[in-house]
Amino acid sequence: MRAPQIERNEQLLASGVVPVIPPKCDAVDDPEQERWHDQLVRYRKEKGQYAFQNKYGYGLRARVEAQFSRIKRCLGDTLLTRRTASQVQEGRVIANLINQWNAFGQAQCVKKA
Questions:
Q1: 78 domain-assigned
Q2: pTM over 0.70, yes/no
Q3: 12-42 burial string, b = 16+ CB within 10 Å, else e?
Q4: What is the domain extent for residue 17?
Q5: Are residues 49 and 12 in the same domain?
Q6: CA-CA distance, 59 to 8, in Å (whole number)?
Q7: Which residues contact 43 (CB under 8 A, 6 or more apart)?
């Protein structure tokens, strides 16, 4: 990691922001300098991947990201109107459409033998 990124991460940590980025599977903690990344790596090695995801709510984050991905694929990633008032209305229409989609429920997958 480059020096500016490390400085930015340390500033965020000092202000109380705790990033929840899963470390790579082959990540190694640095015994000379204790950082949030090293704590995450150690926790993941001790408790396992599923415990890490449960502790930090990573499954919820993944579901939210998947929902945004579906919205962008179906509706596009930009608003079509140019004026601010029109964009507000367009946002409301999109939100109502998404709520209707979610009212149908989630697909239930069943394994058949």
A1: yes
A2: no
A3: eeeeeeeeeeebeeeeebeeeeeebbbebbe
A4: 3-56
A5: yes
A6: 26
A7: 51, 52, 55
